[in-house]
Structures
1.
Amino acid sequence: MKTENRVTDILGIQYPIVQAAMSWITDAKFVAAVSNAGGMGVLGPHAGHNTSPSGPDEVGKRIGNEIRKLKALTEKPFAMNLYLPEDGHSDKYSEATFEAAIGEGVKYFVTVGSVNKAMMKEIKDHNCILIHREVTPSPKAAKMAEDHGADLIIATGYDEGGWIPQNKIGTFSIVPTIVDSVSIPVMAAGGINDIRGVRAAFALGAEAVYIGTRFIASEECPAADATKQDIVASKGSDLLMVSSMQRSTPHQFARELETLYRNGESSENNEKRISAIGGVSTSMLHGKLDEGIVSVNTAIDLITEVKSCKEIIHELMADFIES
Ligand SMILES: Cc1cc2nc3c(=O)[nH]c(=O)nc-3n(C[C@H](O)[C@H](O)[C@H](O)COP(=O)(O)O)c2cc1C
């Protein structure tokens, strides 16, 4: 297959693979490893943090520091994740993140949430590349994002790790649906852990893949070793729904949440319980598996080894590597 396509052209990268933003478990070293291996790394919102920030000012400072570290580790393109609140609303944490990123010269943003016209305009006014990911994707939202300046769209299937779409539409269904609704290139996300997933994504019309869970089990990801080994050992059939938003590998806290949810507790209350313990930081960053949740995709049976980011990229991108 040809190495270059519209996505590699727009992003200025070698292979059509982007490492997904993942809240507590991205930092400068990890993102640089992906970018230096020919993909694009994306700093998540808690980039390099070990503890909860005291407020938006501290978030801005921390993000600025991490981006400076990242720029010292790579000259290749990388992106910053940015949460977009509903149109007409603002978010102080998101604004602080954006200002810090712009201050450090960041040129690529992966936005997540809803189409927020003012924030999307701001990104484009700064001549940045805008990659939009609607949490619950739909043709209408994708077209709206395109109309408001998105350069690329990520179509995420229900199979994904992290906060899952609320329409329960799998990757096989959502990718071609979104491809048919926009003229800009689409990246596929959700359950892509090996080369078969990559080939399927391209067969469905995607022009790149956006990969989270597979990269957690990499040497450079700041997730705890216990978390990486948990992913290697767990099976998709073991996963528990802890709310309508997230699934987890089965450990004590996740079992408690799953029992509550199955017995009628609202997703909102369980999400509050997860936020109260610092989101996925307790389990995924600090490795206390019984005290938090380990949020992963449904295809984890395919992850059998922790490898370097470069090895993962070479495996997944084998069709794009000229021999
Ligand atoms: C542990 C974890 C944390 C995540 N946190 C974020 C986040 O902070 N922001 C975001 O836009 N997406 C987040 N995601 C979603 C990913 O960006 C991406 O959509 C997803 O991982 C792709 O599916 P995959 O895990 O099947 O590869 C997270 C995913 C995981 C697994």
Note: The longest strand covers residues 78-84.
2.
Amino acid sequence: YGIPNFKMRKEILQDKLEYLERMGIEFVCNTVIGKDVTVDDLMRERGFDAVFLGTGAPVGGEMKIEGEELANVYQATEFLVRGNLEPEQLPENMREPMDCADKDVLVVGGGDTSMDCVRTAIRLEAKSVTCMYRRTEAEQKGREEERKHAREEGVEFMYLTIPTRFTGENGRVAAAECERMRLGEPDESGRRRPEPIPGSQFTLPADIVVLAIGYSPDELMEKTTPGLRTTPWKTVRVDEDYATTRPGVFAGGDNVNGADLVVTAMADGRRASEAIHRYLESL
Ligand SMILES: Cc1cc2nc3c(=O)[nH]c(=O)nc-3n(C[C@H](O)[C@H](O)[C@H](O)COP(=O)(O)OP(=O)(O)OC[C@H]3O[C@@H](n4cnc5c(N)ncnc54)[C@H](O)[C@@H]3O)c2cc1C
């Protein structure tokens, strides 16, 4: 629901949900698997023969720098949800208005999520919107088209730069202390590793900071599902049939691949459903 309306109208999702309901699918909302009920409960007590885990990668990355706890420093998901939904559509603790009008907004991160954030900030009438990324545009992972739209709308891109500390006034963020970077040798992802340039520190005013530096799966499922194994990156281990290490439990999408794309999650879902069908027939 944080996906901005300028990118996808909520009615498209609503139509799809209604279509799936008409097909006979029952949606059980406001239930956290691993907290309200466990996978064990579903299989042993409620009689499900197979379970598919499509829980995504919802945990936003933290910078772990001083000042991150200041007011008006947001995780991308909270910023997008609050910036794109009406207060009555939000949980009570998020209803306080988020005032971006005439503010300097700094978005940290260079992927598609950061483009959603900068373009949302523009629509919330920010005075300035800066997208800060530690590498150059050549290494940026998101789509070029999104950056083009952002530039057309007035977003400033600040490459080869990281914030090292956020400073505040009266508990609210007021500025980001930053450092320039240069590219060194390639890292394990094959992209050249950014290295700080000594003596390049400077301060950037920022009334609102949004952290959009990646997502990872949460550990709830692993902790509450005996036999379910994950990788060091917290993604669920599956075989070529999307079967996890727990018999009868399958998984796919971002909780297996890490934060990725809708199209890969959909492809996983389709292939996993065929594998689940074969599994059920074998019982
Ligand atoms: C801001 C943003 C912008 C993006 N923009 C794009 C884009 O433009 N194009 C693109 O292709 N991709 C984009 N993505 C990525 C895309 O949204 C994901 O790759 C895709 O949604 C993954 O699908 P999924 O089914 O694996 O997980 P999700 O779509 O994340 O669905 C997981 C669902 O599981 C629920 N859930 C999680 N844990 C539990 C639990 N314990 N119990 C019950 N339910 C649970 C969640 O509430 C959620 O409804 C974007 C992502 C973000 C965050």
Note: Residues 262-282 form the longest helix (21 residues).
